Structure formats: structure tokens, C-alpha cells
Amino acid sequence: MTRTDPTRATLAAQGLGRVDGSTRAISPPIHLSSTFERDPDNQYRSGRAYIRADNPSFDQPEALLTVLEGGAGSMLFSSGMAAATAVFQALSPGDHVVAPKVMYWSLRDWLLGFARNWGLDVTIADMTDTGAIGRAVRPGKTKVVWAETPANPLWGITDLAAAVEIAHQAGARLAVDSTVATPVLTQPIDFGADIVMHSATKYLNGHSDIAAGALVTRTDDEFWQRLKTARKQLGGVLGSFEAWLLLRGMRTLFPRVRLACANAQRIAESLQSNPHVVQVLYPGLPGCPGHAIAAKQMKGGFGGMLSIRVKGGEAAAVGTAANVRIWKRATSLGSTESLIEHRASVEGPDTPCPPDLLRLSAGIEDADDLIDDLAAALAAQSRG
């Protein structure tokens, strides 16, 4: 029998199969030192000088993420926001960027506030419409086109191949927030994306016990070196223990994401016939916009995130969330527990999110328990 290279699922489960060289430990050590000794001739031949520039606890999780995404390198950050904003802070005042109309709200708010005040020229576009992307870019002036797919919290889909072509023809890089898709379902670099961002707090870690972010690059180029400098100088680095926890979580990434996808699909299908639900937003449903594109660029599932619009408006949506027993009323997504949230309350008056919408993060519990709990909560709020 001819032996083949291990799959990405196997590499993730074994953390690339690495063992500690001195102790033969399967689980890696946690390096807590903030500084590293120089050689007698004043050199740093170890490649380590100070923890803000480099940390040996990052080596294994960064290497694993690079393999999972098929990139040329990865960097860990202290949060998803630290990772995402580093991409834009590596640009110069006056540079033009295009960002989605529907995206992670905190980053959208940062772009329209801090980034514009700092001097970036920001255009918001409907990234589910390739024509809108084409109209938004400015050849020779646009430096970054930012996509998020599926896009939080309406779960619209960006055609990555088309977006890459538009961005590159304009002389821009395409950066993709792939937090929800994860490398289990989509590898944006395969479609030509230049940078992939993850809020590693979510699926990559998967246990609601750290904040972390990550960037992966298609090529180790001059822009990637600027990003490395940004991380070092801005100081948005991850702690050693958090890096260890992230690697721990990534070992179970594939089974967690696959089960969350299966649960979300069942939940979405069950809610389509619920009389208290006006609309189910989930790219795994054939009737949802973007389903055909998602089916081409998401392999093995459509993600663990969905949203519903509740009959009766905002009060009914809030009331439904108040009546759940198993779902947890909390912000975030991508962990083992299922979460429910009235998203418009979080995002405020400028949100594109309808007031009757509940965002659901399907965890890895029994699907029937989740379906029954949500159906009972919807029925209870309708009775008042």
C-alpha cells in the first residue's frame, strides 16, 4: 500500500505531530519568558530577542494554521480586532479601502470612525454583489478590499474568485475574514486571496476561554513584513498561555466544526416551517441568496451560524431569547455551547441588522435538544 500525506484533519488533531525535543512530551511546553539571552558576541542567533517581537509558544499554532489555510506564514494577535486592524494600520493615510456593508460590527465601526479619522479613505459596498465591488474599487488607488464570508450576522456570501479578480485588476489585495467558514470549510488562499483573518477566539479556539486573532498570508512579501512590524510596534500580541490554549482548541477544530455545521443545518431546516419565524438566514438552505456560491466554495458544510427573524418584531425576538433553557444568551460564536443573541441591541441604531433578528451559534450539543428548546421558546413568547 502506498502511504499518502496525512490530511489536514489529522494534522490538526495531532498539532502537526510535533513532540517536545527534550522531554518527548506530546503536549507542547508553555514558554513564559519575556526576554531571551544574547550570544557572547552580542548576536541573537536563536532568533529570539523579546516577547513582543517573537514568542516560541507561537511557533506550533502558527505553523498549524499556515498548513490548514495553505499559506506562506501566519501571525497570532491578542484578539480578532487586533489582527484585522493591523491590516489597515499597515497602510498609509490617504490609501483607499473597500469594506462590506454587512460585516463584524466592531471592525465596521472602527473603519468608519478611527480609520477615517486617521486618514484612510473607506468605501462601504455590498460584497454579495460583484458589480457593487467593481464599482467601489478605484484602480491604482484601492489598496485593500476586505471581504467577510459568510458575513455576520445576515450570512451573505461573497464570491471569492470574483472578488479576487476585481481586487487584483485594481492593484489591490483581497483580505478575507474567514472566521465563520474556518479552514475546515473554505481556504480563501485557494481562490487567490492575499490575507486571511480569523477571530481565533471563535472556532479556532472553540471553548470560550481566550481572546485571540490570526492572520495568514498567501505570500511572504513586503506587505507581510509591514504587518510583522505592526504587530511588534503596536504590541497586540497573544500571551503564552493563550497560545497554548489556542493550539489545544485547534486540535479538535475539524470534529467541532463538522458537528456544528450538521446541527445548524438541522436547526435551519426545522425553523423553516415554524409559524413564529418570518425568515431563516442560513447559506445551507437552497432558497437563501448566495447558496449556489457557498456550495462551490464551502466544502463539507455551510457553517455553524444562522439567524432568524421572529414574527412579532423586536419584542418577540427579545422574548424568545428570554425563554430559552439550553441556548445561552451571550455574545460570541463558534464554541461548544450554543449561543443566542438579539444582535441589533448590540450594534446600535446604525446596524444593518433587522430589529426582529436573533443570531444563533449552533454548538455541539444534541441537535434535538437545541431544536426543541428553540421551538418551545418561540411558542412561549407568542403566548405572551
Task: Please state the average pLDDT score.
Answer: 96
Q: Please identify, by name, the CATH architecture of the largest domain.
A: 3-Layer(aba) Sandwich
Helical content stands at 25-40%
Do you know the CATH topology of the largest domain?
Aspartate Aminotransferase, domain 2
Helical/strand content category:
alpha/beta
Number of domains: 2
Count of individual helical segments: 14
Distance between the termini: 65 Å
- Cα-based radius of gyration, to the nearest Å: 21 Å
Largest sheet: 7 strands, mixed
Low-confidence blocks of residues: none
CATH class of the largest domain: Alpha Beta
CATH superfamily of the largest domain: Type I PLP-dependent aspartate aminotransferase-like (Major domain)
**How many beta-strand segments?**
12
Lateral strand order in the biggest sheet: 1-7-6-5-4-2-3
Shape: globular
Textual characterization of the structure:
There is one protein chain. The chain is α/β, with parallel strands linked by helices and 384 residues long. It folds into two domains: 8-250, Type I PLP-dependent aspartate aminotransferase-like (Major domain) (Aspartate Aminotransferase, domain 2, 3-Layer(aba) Sandwich); 253-383, Aspartate Aminotransferase, domain 1. The protein is 38% helix and 15% strand. The protein has 14 helices and twelve strands. The strands form two sheets. It has a seven-stranded mixed β-sheet, with helices on both faces. It has a five-stranded mixed β-sheet with strand order 8-9-12-11-10. Helix 3 packs parallel to helix 4, helix 10 (253-271) runs parallel beside helix 14 (367-383) and helix 12 (313-322) crosses helix 14 (367-383). The longest helix is centred in the last third of the chain and has 19 residues, at 253-271. The radius of gyration is 21 Å and the shape is globular.
